[in-house]
Amino acid sequence: MNRTKREPVAPIRPSARDPISQWLDVFTRLLGLPDVERQRIRDELEDHLRNRVDDLMILGMPEVEAVCKAVAELGETADLAKRFKAAHHSPNRRFLMPTVLTAVAGTALAISVFNLGSSGIPPGSNQQAIAALQAQPEAEHGSPEDHRLDFDIPAGTLGEAFERLAESADVQMFVHWDSFADWGITPDTEIPIIPAKGLEMVKVKQFLDSVLGLEEPYRIAGRFEDGLVEIATQDYFDRRDSVTAYYDLSDLVPADHPLEYTDEGETIRRVITETIEPEIWASPSGSSRRAGPGGYGRIAIIGSQMTIKAPERIQRQVTEFIEKLKQAQRQLDRASEYEAQQAREALEAERVAELERLASMKEQFAKELENLTSELDSINMQYWEARYSVEAMERRYNTSEDEAESAEILPELIAARARLESIDTERGVMKERFDTVLHRIQQVESQWIGRQY
After folding, report:
1. CATH (residue range 349-452)
2. What is the pTM of this model?
3. Which CATH entry fits the domain spanning 120-240: 3.40.190.10, 3.40.50.300, 3.90.1150.10, 3.55.50.30?
């Protein structure tokens, strides 16, 4: 028997978005690729996911578990995104954030979109309390939650059913009927017989949600403490138990790029509000994204600190999301540092190899210069001997008064002059070679000094 909200206010129902489509929306948006490429990737992944879910459901797995498993089987989402983005530009650390968000978006979706539990932790007020909640179970309502009924709930009023359940669990019960008022549900609301024998309270609650037509976040929820069970809608407890928590995100961006002034801050806000129970979040301007219930969660980013006001069960999911985000960033930082170290080692190896090459060249040029010095000394000696010989012949020729003697000296003088000219030419070529090799040695020494530091 489904109940509708009494007039004149129209009932407000949370949207039931397809979780696969929701994950794909976030994933493809974070890819940062052209629209045509993103649509191609989306179609490919959607076809894979839906076929996989069908296969798992045929094997008997419930749909929610099948969707969770299909998403998880994609593996590391960051690696998946990296393959798709390989043909595009390689961003610096600032723009690694979308990739990091992609790496944890699937996990955040599995934590939140498919989460059927509810929190029973009393409200707190600081970050330490939120961190401590991670070690606690998602639902902790005490013995009434585990109590099994030994009877079927007869047809009658909802108030009578709650009284019978309280008696069976031997607890006192208080129902916040005002939280159900917008749905036209009162203590006198009639319900049909519910086959509850042998079932735990949590299963009975699901039956009641079904017959009353309640959907998240307005399903029946309970809080158990000191022998008293409080009953209200999940939305009521979420609003009552909302706490403010502070998250330091400075590890995710360079110090000179606070999240408040970058696109990454808005990206983090969008991923949280679109994957962790979207119906509870207010719009960035502060107004509710929906009229009426919902829209009470708030996110503000100042500098690189994010402040969130939300129920503790949401804070636990956000804490886990942020931690996974930081883990992914640390992995990227380690990979980046490893690549930088590899580059430094490669440059050092190149520098050492260049120094060795320059040292080898200098050694070769030094040997060549040594040989040229020896050859130049030898040819200089030949030059001066030839020159002295020519000068002596010229003196004999010029001072000879005997024509026959002069005629005999002249051919020798011509030959000596030719030899002197040849030696002088060879000596000039050798000097040029010497100067060239000396200059090359000076160049190599200059390069070697430059590579040393």
Report:
1. 1.10.287.1490
2. 0.46
3. 3.55.50.30
